Amino acid sequence: MLALSQTTGYAILALSCLDGRQDQWVLARSIAQCSGIPLPYLSKVMHALARAQLVRAKRGYRGGFQLVRPADQITLLEVANAVEGPAWLTRCLLGLDECSDELACPMPPCWVAQRAEIEQELARRTLRDVAQFESRFGGRLAGCKDDAAPTQPPDIPVTGD
Q: What is the per-residue pLDDT across 84-95, written as a single tens digit (0 to 9) for each?
């Protein structure tokens, strides 16, 4: 079965955690907790997404990650291209290194049409679609915005002695 890589799946989940938080910096630790992605792996993915300009990254106090655009304006195709590189969908369906448009294996008549359909569908779907699906059906991201750790320390009242 054709599937996106686990890294792309993680990237989509991580970015979906940021849906509705455009004005907040969200810590990698909070995203990892929300999505169930191991923190060291998540950090690498998030920095790659920052290089691809899908998120902003800010280090230090009150730092974290933010989406550069609302989740309903970031397509799954953009995320897949950022993680896999723009040629990920042109690879041979059978995984043959020698296969190309010029020297094709037996699969191109089927694969060319399917590839275009997959690309169009990923371009139609957004991070918001994933976040809403996860929330509606109790997936990994259900309720994570409420449970995620704050990106800044809570206000602590000062009391006199």
A: 887 777 667 777
Contact 123, 75 (CB under 8 A): yes
First to last CA, the chain: 67
Task: Give strand ranges (E) for 2-152.
Answer: 55-58, 64-67
Tokens 């006199």 correspond to 160
Express each pLDDT in 24-65 by its tens digit: 899 999 999 888 899 999 999 999 999 999 999 998 888 899
Q: Within a 10 A sphere around the Cβ of 116, how many other Cβ atoms?
A: 11
Q: How long, in residues, is the chain?
A: 161
d(CA 144, CA 57): 20
**Six-digit token pair at 51?**
């290089």
154: left (phi over 0), alpha (psi -120 to 50) or beta: beta
Q: DSSP character for 78?
A: H
- What whole-number distance in Å separates Cα of residue 40 and Cα of residue 57? 16
Distance CA 47, CA 39 (A): 12
